[in-house]
Amino acid sequence: MLLRNLKLYKVKSGLAPVVQICRLSSSIPLEDFPVGTVSEKQVKPERKSIVPSNCRYVYPEFLPDPKMQWRNPLREKLERMDMIQRRKHIDIPEFYVGTIMAVTSSNQHAPNKATRFVGICIQRLGCGLRANFTLRNVIKHIGTEMKYQLYDPTIQKIEVLRLEKRLDDELLYLRDAPNEYSTFDENMEAEYLPEGSPIPVNTTMVKLKPRPWRARWERKNMKGLADLELPERFYKRAEELATPWEKYDLMKQYRRTIPEEEQKEIFAEVYSELHEVNVMRKKQKRKKVFIKPFKN
User: Fold this and answer.
1) pTM
2) Where is this chain primarily localised (predicted)?
């Protein structure tokens, strides 16, 4: 059979690559020729994200400020890079409000040029390089609080002595509670949890001292407070000022939080480097623990 009008055609398809075919006869329409298709085996499945779902709780300072007037993508990216570099020089462990911690910071007026403070974390605020946390302890019958910038270069060491959570996001009501709820030994030894175990939740109910208080705690929805034993008029006034409909205000919640899609993008950007830092820390700890055997 003679080949007439031999030509090469490029057939393009949405799923198939460009395929070159020969037309044997001008009487045969081009549409009758088979078009190359991609088999199911050639389609690569999408990779699942390796970022853990609890990153937003372990590294909350990596999320930007939800207020739009303070947003600046370039500054936020540069801050995240600085935070990762800082974490390579100092071990910043996982902690939450309610965790008992010890912080060693530089102090030129101290005898050893360093000061160590032990206390319970009662507040954690801020984002980026402005992230901070507050520790509270009772020293010589006096309530003492220390506020630290999480990425302050004067901090030499951060230790977690007891990793746990509380029922509330803030424990500022400990200022109006008896000293026994905020007293911790300065020489307290660290309590270690098995790797992979869930974070324990301390369900201690705090009983406040008699009024006056530093805040109207009956008007705040605090789960960790015991019965306040107030007259009925205080609770009626609290009900009048309550705003239970705010939990249904989706736009208000949207303005107060970072969208989940943006959170995934941020943690996908920084998690690989954070994971490398954690692996490096674990290797260093193993080297310190390992003792090389010697022959007698």
Assistant:
1) 0.77
2) mitochondrion
